[in-house]
Design a protein that fits this description.
By secondary structure, this protein is an alpha+beta fold. The protein folds into two domains: 3-188, Transcription factor LuxR-like, autoinducer-binding domain (Beta-Lactamase), CATH 3.30.450.80; 195-259, Arc Repressor Mutant, subunit A (Orthogonal Bundle), CATH 1.10.10.10. The chain is 39% helix and 21% strand. The strands form two sheets. The chain has a seven-stranded mixed beta sheet. A two-stranded antiparallel sheet has the order 5-6. The model is unreliable at 92-109 and 182-198 (pLDDT under 50).
């Protein structure tokens, strides 16, 4: 059954009734400091709109998301234009300008941040996984950066353990009219967020160092960057060392924050 997102009764919707099951599945992550997971599955998108399926360990975030029509930011581009990537954010509102509407929920401060969006694309859909931790756990970005493969493996396990939830969420998918920013989640959008010319020029980064910095910001490790850039892991490590030196960063965490 497809419902219009504008008419949703959130407390009665499947995303709310399934939240405890999602929270139980992600419980092994809590030992690492990850306390929240929200999943948006985008299908059949074009300029007119499309459908969204939600799963979340804390569905409260969806009310302002719906009330302020934040979902329109995710509409407009077909799934074939999305790219697989990971994007870090220190706070929820940094994910995108419109998500600043999620900073407060029912008068309470949003309790988690320091998150990462892991985006995975398929022929018929785009899945956006948002992992987050307590807002005071500032070290989490370094954890994400060093454990992207771990998160992707968890996503694979999550799909297996949550098969029933996935099927049900599709039954209760929501139709959203279009009219949003058609660059959201597309290659051009993320490219613009990654390769900041002013940063590269300010620190005199070479072309290869710019490419490497872009991959670092997306959350890729040295092995993955080596494959993408068709160079050795040792060369990647040399580029990273040079970037850190030029940008006056002692650790990869400092570099990551400087690249935001």
């Amino acid at each position: 059954m497809i419902s219009d997102i504008a008419n949703i009764e959130l407390e009665k919707h499947f995303v709310s009734t399934s939240s405890s099951a999602v929270d139980e599945i992600i419980s092994p992550l809590k030992v690492y400091g990850i306390s929240h997971l929200s999943l948006s599955i985008l299908r059949d998108h074009d300029k007119k709109g499309g459908t969204i399926e939600f799963l979340s360990s804390d569905p409260r975030m969806l009310q302002p998301y719906i009330d302020n029509k934040v979902y329109k930011e995710f509409l407009g581009a077909g799934c074939q234009n999305y790219i697989d990537c990971a994007v870090l954010s220190k706070t929820v509102e940094e994910t995108s300008p419109l998500l600043a509407q999620l900073a407060t929920i029912q008068g309470e401060s949003y309790k988690f941040g320091n998150g990462i969006d892991v985006i995975q694309t398929f022929e018929d859909r785009c899945e956006v996984y948002y992992f987050a931790s307590d807002i005071d756990r500032h070290h989490m970005q370094e954890f994400y950066l060093n454990n992207i493969d771990f998160l992707r493996q968890f996503i694979f396990l999550f799909r297996e353990k949550a098969k029933v939830l996935f099927n049900k969420s599709r039954e209760y998918r929501l139709y959203c009219s279009g009219g949003g920013d058609d660059t959201m989640l597309t290659s051009d959008y993320w490219q613009s967020r990654t390769n900041k010319a002013n940063i590269a020029d300010l620190y005199n980064l070479t072309k290869k160092e710019r490419e490497c910095a872009g991959c670092i910001k997306f959350g890729y490790g040295a092995k993955e960057i080596a494959v993408m850039m068709n160079i050795s892991k040792k060369t990647v490590e040399k580029h990273v060392a040079q970037i850190k030196r030029k940008m006056h960063c002692k650790t990869i965490y400092e570099l990551l924050l400087r690249l935001q």
